[in-house]
């Protein structure tokens, strides 16, 4: 059964590999926190070892140049999708309080985005990310 909503992430294509992975991990944690219904149930192997639950729907990851990332962010906000942001400043902060302060200090149109994650109706997410390529 196909979900009615979609989770998608776009990271800036000029980031180091470790940064892309780090940004993706932080961004999707925002989706799980805001929308606990997106998370399935625990896994268990044949030996009875239990594992943490994960998203119950696919997560698509895209890569884009800074301008395309900014455009996708603007479209996502205009479509009133749930958006998580990761800005360049968050690479140097050391905790969540400083992270929130760093984002709060910059107006929307001037955010130096490293990546965004969105969740919303499938068609709205598709329109916001139209033209972006999946991460290689």
UniProtKB/TrEMBL annotation:
Protein name: DUF2000 domain-containing protein
Taxonomic source organism: Amycolatopsis acidiphila
Gene3D superfamilies the UniProt entry points to: Bit1
InterPro entries associated with the record: DUF2000, Pep_tRNA_hydro_II_dom_sf
């Amino acid at each position: 059964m196909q979900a009615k909503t979609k989770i998608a992430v776009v990271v800036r294509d000029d980031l180091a590999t470790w940064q892309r992975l780090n940004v993706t991990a932080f961004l999707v944690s925002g989706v799980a926190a805001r929308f606990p219904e997106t998370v399935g149930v625990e896994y268990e192997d044949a030996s009875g070892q239990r594992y943490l639950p994960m998203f119950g729907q696919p997560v698509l990851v895209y890569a884009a140049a800074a301008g395309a990332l900014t455009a996708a962010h603007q479209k996502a906000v205009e479509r009133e999708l749930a958006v998580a942001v990761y800005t360049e400043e968050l690479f140097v902060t050391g905790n969540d309080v400083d992270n929130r302060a760093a984002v709060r200090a910059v107006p929307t149109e001037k955010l130096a985005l490293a990546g965004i994650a969105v969740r919303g109706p499938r068609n709205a997410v598709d329109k916001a990310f139209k033209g972006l390529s999946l991460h290689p």
